[in-house]
Amino acid sequence: MTGISGLPPAKLAAHEAAVARLRDAYSAVPPGVPVRLAKSTSNLFRFRDSGKAAVAAQAAKPGQAAGAETVRQLDVSAFGRVIHVDPASRTAVVGAMTTYEDLCDATLPHNLMPLVVPQLKTITLGGAVTGLGIESTSLQNGLPHESVTEMQILTGDGRVVTATEDNEHRDLFFGFPNSYGTLGYSLALTIELMPVRPYVYLRHFAFNDPDSCMDAIAEIASASSYQGHRADFVDGTAFSAKELYLTVGAFSDKAPWLSDYTGQQIYYQSLRRSREDFLTIRDYIWRWDTDWFWCSRPFGVQHKALRRFWPRRYRRSDVYRKLVALDQKYGLTAVLYEKRHQPQREMVVQDVEIPVGRGGEFLGFFEESVHMRPVWLCPLRLRGERTWPLYPLRPGEVYVNFGFWGTVPLPPGKADGYYNRMVEEEVSALGGHKSLYSTAFYSEEEFRSRYNGQAYDKLKAEYDGDGRLLGLYDKCVRGR
Ligand SMILES: Cc1cc2nc3c(=O)[nH]c(=O)nc-3n(C[C@H](O)[C@H](O)[C@H](O)COP(=O)(O)OP(=O)(O)OC[C@H]3O[C@@H](n4cnc5c(N)ncnc54)[C@H](O)[C@@H]3O)c2cc1C
């Protein structure tokens, strides 16, 4: 099977009918009316009352009809499932709104998994391809979009095109990652899969300074192993600049014991107490989702007694994110801080990529200036020589993704953006990049220089010439 055209006839017919319905629904939306994907989950960390903001944005556009037409939600539910898995060619055709949880449930019975599986269950394949994703196989396999062989896209100007790396839409194929749904919406994606073994044998290596930890990452990048342990998976956690752990995982057919971090035990706390561990491949893939890394703490879920009463099925990242969204909407904690005369706090939720040689400097800066702990470390390297213009990483270079998610009390007289802006400046100074799923404070000029505004303008003109969809800066910085 090679992509959509190679699908079994019944599946192809059903898919083509769904595509035609969506294309018609999209073309029926009057010009000037904002469009959004009607998705039940999101992992974006820009909270806005999307309706009002979008109308305001539209109203701001010169020459567009004034008056408030609410956002038109596009029903994309037909694209929320795996269309076909082909174990022989180790490929799958997947509806772009399919969550990785459902995708893995469809491939693991074939002893296969996507080359990169972001660790939050409700991240969708389309969201990770357009918004960038990363996980512990990224040192070997790059980012999720690098194992996509074909993209079917409903473009901003209403066409449905199929983009591959060598057809007439190759510019869109390479420009789609980091476009955040501003050039068009992916409907179906053909991806490569890789074989799995039933278990993962983890070894946790301790470090007491960032530089030796970065050196170990560089060593693993060239040797694909560490202290004789094969590195099929690599990520790490910095509890402070003096206490860091690298977790190196190897596929295994045997497991003398198995841990379970969906019950009373909490995964990230195991890193400090044990040097080795065994998980089933499925539990390994979702090891961070149960406690949203460590971000379930503010909800009391990590409190032993409370955890017993917090239903297992609600120990999930999407549940915690919904609670944060509610809080953002009604400003509950902000009122609480006010009442308690405590300083307001700034939300600092970001993932940034830094060249491994400057990683120690970044952690030193972060410890001193932002002082938020723990920090997730995930090494990555582009897969091969191909480059992706809207997120310009250099082929062959080893980067470390630093992920940090929480709030920090603002110093007197400082406003929201104070810490995030500091991080942006440090990332630029160290030759790094920041992913755009959360808040950003760049000027338009700096944003264009960091995310290749020229290449973007060309793609926008070609695939959304009338600007039916928002522009990248409007969406990712102005938060419209
Ligand atoms: C706490 C936290 C930690 C995170 N850690 C990681 C991490 O470690 N690894 C990682 O990979 N990611 C991480 N993310 C980021 C996450 O992967 C991105 O936000 C991703 O884009 C979300 O995908 P989603 O499917 O939830 O999409 P959504 O949140 O629904 O959408 C994200 C953006 O993509 C657009 N979009 C969605 N689907 C499509 C489509 N089919 N076609 C075109 N555009 C589309 C939307 O318009 C939106 O602009 C993290 C996010 C959070 C909040």
List keywords for this structure.
single chain, 480 residues, alpha+beta, Uridine Diphospho-n-acetylenolpyruvylglucosamine Reductase, domain 3
Characterization of the model:
- This protein has 480 residues and is an alpha+beta fold.
- Helices cover 32% and strands 23% of the residues.
- It has a domain at 4-196: 2-Layer Sandwich (Uridine Diphospho-n-acetylenolpyruvylglucosamine Reductase, domain 3).
- It has 17 helices and 18 strands.
- Helix 7 runs antiparallel to helix 13.
- The longest helix is centred in the first third of the chain and has 19 residues, at 9-27.
- 41% of the residues are buried.
- Bound molecules: flavin-adenine dinucleotide (FAD).
- Flavin-adenine dinucleotide (FAD) binds next to helix 4, strand 8, strand 15 and strand 17.
- Residues 37, 39, 42-45, 96-97, 118-119, 122-124, 126-128, 130-131, 133-135, 180-181, 185-186, 349, 351, 403, 405, 437 line the site of flavin-adenine dinucleotide.
